[in-house]
DNA sequence: GCAACATCGGTGTTGACACTCTTCATGGTT
DNA sequence: AACCATGAAGAGTGTCAACACCGATGTTGC
């Protein structure tokens, strides 16, 4: 059913959403897109349907498509879903990993350690931040792959991309506080990663699962605070956990 | 984007798949369906795309759509996904449930206890089997609802329906062995449900999660054996765990 | 200021056409 | 005679442009 033109349209729109050119909430006009891609509206419609599947796009009857936009409640729910899947995958990875999987995980971990040390030592963190984020992602992907459950892997990846789109990428994490605080956080994250790696390498399924769960819960809380600040337009002070909870009920 | 006709087509095809009229692997011709529903091919195409989203339909370029068919590997992966989500949801339910949620869970549990006793006591199990299955489903749904995570709830429901379609419903479970064995199994399942309920009512998140995990793992193993038997065409004897593992690699 | 109405942008739907894949028949080869 | 390669026909999907319809916006009259 899907065919060449549909795939071209799908790749084109997907890329522009993931790159941030199309931001959350932005309307996606079928005619405009069709003209840009130089195909008719039909394959564009198909592509948008498929993107809706991925969760990247919202479609409402007669109102058209727009880039997915979440409120705090949805964001929290999605994050929790990710936590459930990714910690389960970590538990599987502890049991199912091959030597090659383990090497890949360790490689990403070593790179993260190297980069974190460099960032903590340097005055200017910017040059290495991108690399650090990339290695972090590689670490998590390597673990998913080691779980040997392709379906779960795809699902987690989907949620990762969705997370990236709706959280607005670097809009949030960048410069969220004094460098010292960020450094402390980075070292804590690194330590957690080492714990996770140890559990997986040791074949301890339950521990791998738990450690990954704690790690992600911590990340999620961090993200939720950042997103809540951004949504409320309050940039100067943190919301308390209770305020955060309530703001999710809008 | 979706509209009346698309929805009509979606409901129509979905219902026939879920009712078992369209069995796994069966081709779904756009023209034929369009003629039956009395709309053009476009809304039918849209509906099939949406059903692909749900996982109920497979679409390949230029080859058309067919009802989803899984091999053992995919089935195992899907089951494991369900386990991850549903046990996590049980953990959430222990913390987030309202009194009404708890009543709903207890109601289904009481009904199951009543029906199980009746079945064990009776010679002919048939009249009550349908009811028992329904209450079992209600029990699990009530727990999902108590988790207060709508996204997770939808995802679990999706997997439930998918499971129902690809496993071929009653084709497998019915008459899988002597009644005494089935009775033993049913009592064990009931006992596990009671454990799960106790953990949730007691607000013990970790225990609820673990108990649900054990319960589902047991169910999955049971299903995998049944499916492997069915796929191999061997109905007289059980596969060993090892044989089962290998047969998944086809 | 508000309600009914006209306008317009954009989606939903349709039927026709182009293209791809499969199947089956034909003919040549070993 | 059996087998593979070639090609033609048919079935079904992918794509297109035009039309129908809905919802939002702005305008008119009261």
TrEMBL record, chains A, B:
<keyword id="KW-0804">Transcription</keyword>
<dbReference type="Pfam" id="PF07729">
    <property type="entry name" value="FCD"/>
</dbReference>
<dbReference type="Pfam" id="PF00392">
    <property type="entry name" value="GntR"/>
</dbReference>
<protein>
    <submittedName>
        <fullName>Unannotated protein</fullName>
    </submittedName>
</protein>
<keyword id="KW-0238">DNA-binding</keyword>
<keyword id="KW-0805">Transcription regulation</keyword>
<dbReference type="InterPro" id="IPR036390">
    <property type="entry name" value="WH_DNA-bd_sf"/>
</dbReference>
<dbReference type="InterPro" id="IPR011711">
    <property type="entry name" value="GntR_C"/>
</dbReference>
<dbReference type="InterPro" id="IPR036388">
    <property type="entry name" value="WH-like_DNA-bd_sf"/>
</dbReference>
<dbReference type="GO" id="GO:0003700">
    <property type="term" value="F:DNA-binding transcription factor activity"/>
</dbReference>
<dbReference type="InterPro" id="IPR000524">
    <property type="entry name" value="Tscrpt_reg_HTH_GntR"/>
</dbReference>
<dbReference type="GO" id="GO:0003677">
    <property type="term" value="F:DNA binding"/>
</dbReference>
<dbReference type="InterPro" id="IPR008920">
    <property type="entry name" value="TF_FadR/GntR_C"/>
</dbReference>
<feature type="domain" description="HTH gntR-type">
    <location>
        <begin position="3"/>
        <end position="70"/>
    </location>
</feature>
């Amino acid at each position: 059913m899907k065919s060449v033109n549909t795939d071209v349209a799908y790749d084109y729109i997907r890329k522009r959403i993931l790159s941030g050119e199309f931001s959350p909430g932005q309307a996606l006009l079928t005619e405009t897109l069709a003209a840009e891609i130089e195909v008719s509206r039909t394959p564009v419609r198909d592509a948008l349907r498929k993107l809706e599947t991925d969760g990247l796009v919202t479609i409402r009857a007669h109102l058209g498509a727009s880039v997915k936009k979440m409120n705090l409640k949805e964001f929290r729910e999605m994050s929790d879903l990710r936590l459930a899947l990714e910690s389960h995958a970590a538990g599987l990875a502890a049991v199912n990993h091959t030597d090659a999987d383990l090497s890949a995980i360790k490689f990403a971990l070593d790179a993260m350690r190297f980069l974190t040390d460099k960032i903590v030592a340097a005055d200017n963190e910017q040059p290495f931040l991108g690399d650090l984020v990339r290695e972090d992602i590689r670490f998590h992907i390597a673990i998913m792959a080691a779980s040997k459950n392709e379906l779960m892997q795809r699902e987690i990846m989907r949620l990762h991309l969705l997370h990236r789109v709706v959280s607005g990428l670097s809009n949030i994490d960048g410069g969220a506080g004094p460098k010292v605080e960020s450094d402390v956080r980075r070292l804590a994250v690194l330590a957690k990663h080492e714990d996770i790696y140890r559990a997986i390498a040791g074949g301890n399924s339950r521990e791998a699962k738990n450690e990954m769960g704690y790690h992600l819960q911590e990340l999620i809380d961090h993200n939720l605070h950042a997103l809540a600040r951004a949504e409320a337009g309050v940039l100067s002070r943190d919301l308390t956990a209770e305020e955060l909870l309530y703001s999710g009920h809008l």
